[in-house]
Please model this.
Amino acid sequence: MINGVTQVVMTKADVLDAFKELNVCTAYNINGKERTEVPFQMDRMHILPVYQSFTGWNKDTTTINDAADLPSAMSTYIDFINDYIGAPVKYVSNGPGREQIVTL
Model:
């Protein structure tokens, strides 16, 4: 759990609709060693992000109101977020409208 967070709202999910692949930074390679934290003093270090890749859903999700209708690739991405941060995504905002929120 992150700072007592018990649920998460995934906003701007519709922005990800057109990507063929999504990359999530899960760690950093710092001077040849993989770490999950970035050091405070970074000026003398060679830091590269370590990514986990996900297949994009490449589908317009702005009209979806039911969690069962979300693309399977999006569900996989959300499941990863749930596991990685230790708190479930409870709502997905898939557009600017108040009605464009999917409850999971």
